[in-house]
Amino acid sequence: MKPRNSTLGLIAALSLALLSACSIAPYEGKYRHEDGWRKARVQAVGSLERLESTYGYTCPQADKADKKTPVAVVNYQGSGRQRTQLMLLSDKTDQKEKTDKADFKVDDLVYANIKQCAEPMIRRVAE
After folding, report:
1. Contacts of 73 (CB under 8 A, 6+ apart)
2. Which stretch of DSSP H or E encloses residue 73?
3. Is 70 helix (H, G, I), strand (E, B) or coil?
4. Whole-prediction pTM value?
5. Could you tell me how far CA 36 lies from the centroid of its own chain?
6. Between vectors from CA 84 to CA 81 and to CA 87, what angle results, nearest 5°?
7. For residue 32, pLDDT beyond 50
8. Contact 112, 67 (CB under 8 A)
9. Which residues have C-beta within 8 Å of that of residue 43, sequence separation ≥ 6?
10. CA-CA distances (angstroms) from residue 108 to 12, 47, 103, 121?
11. Which SS3 state, helix, strand or coil, does residue 81 take?
């Protein structure tokens, strides 16, 4: 029976090591995948009124936003396929990153928090 216990222990240790190797390091050391941050590309920019019929279901906070609120639609890789997310923008500047949220254009590269669609997007550079 002892060999079986040590075999199970070895399997458990290897499984833990494999899971640890699969975890994703935070982007730029601060945007954690587990918190919802994804590398994304802006696909469209416009008003909520114009884009909500197609993409609004991806952003629960859109229900409470003014129809004239600027929004961006982003594409990101999720679960092995391309996904789309509506992100709310505003004219305010995010003081933490000094990013003018309403100044995004199609094909801009960003970090987008897909769990919080009202969270400011952060510009990123191509790798």
Report:
1. 42, 43, 44, 45, 51, 55, 84, 85, 86, 87
2. strand 70-78
3. strand
4. 0.72
5. 5
6. 145
7. yes
8. no
9. 72, 73, 74, 75, 84, 106
10. 43, 17, 10, 11
11. strand
Kindly state the tokens that stand for 47: 């008003």
Which residues on adjacent β-strands are paired with residue 40?
A: 76, 110
- How long a stretch of residues is the chain? 127
Distance in angstroms (rounded) separating the CA atoms of residues 35 and 77: 15
Distance CA 115, CA 123 (A): 18
pLDDT tens string 45-67: 999 999 988 887 889 888 889 99
Instruction: Render pLDDT for 65-105 as a digit per residue (tens, 0 to 9).
Output: 999 999 999 999 988 899 999 999 975 545 555 454 568 99
* Residues 102/94/125/127 CA torsion (nearest 10 deg): -120
